[in-house]
Write a structure and sequence with these properties.
mainly alpha, 2 strands, 7 helices, 151 residues, single chain
């Protein structure tokens, strides 16, 4: 089980790593949204999983991810990916993207159009369709429902 924590108005966050290193993240005065995602890590022995997790934020598709993980053959990468993550690279990347989209829908004041653009959707309709299929409710309605429940 992964616990989810959402904090607002955070000015500074300090991360202490097991190797003794420390990182400090400070928010900007422009009120930008900063997303930090913690992904459970159970073993240091799996460099494939580490490589995938480290590289996925910087790529747009499975082919780019395969190349970043030093695989020339997408088919081989996909086979290894399924073995370690129990789903295809495309599905896994879409799951991560939709987690981010849902967080932005429910926790930010950004318009749904802005979220679509930030998260790399070709258009608003595509985002609405994928979101509705995934969560059973369109993003705007989900936001309104959450705001209503918060009152």
């Amino acid at each position: 089980m992964v616990d989810k924590y959402i904090f607002s108005d955070v000015s500074t966050c300090t991360f202490n790593f097991s190797n003794g290193e420390r990182a400090i993240v400070k928010s900007s005065p422009k009120k930008e949204i900063v997303l930090v995602k913690f992904i459970p890590h159970t073993s240091r022995k799996n460099s494939f999983q580490e490589s995938v997790v480290a590289n996925y934020p910087d790529v747009k598709n499975a082919s780019e991810l395969a190349k970043r993980c030093n695989y020339d053959c997408l088919k081989t990468f996909t086979r290894h990916f399924k073995k370690h993550f129990n789903q295809t690279p495309y599905q896994w990347m879409l799951d991560r993207k939709m987690e981010e989209v849902q967080h932005l829908v429910l926790e930010s004041d950004l318009s749904i159009s802005e979220i679509a653009q930030i998260c790399g959707f070709n258009n608003l309709t595509h985002l609405v369709n994928v979101y509705s299929n995934r969560f059973g409710i369109p993003p705007f309605r989900n936001r309104m429902q959450e705001n209503k429940n918060a009152i």
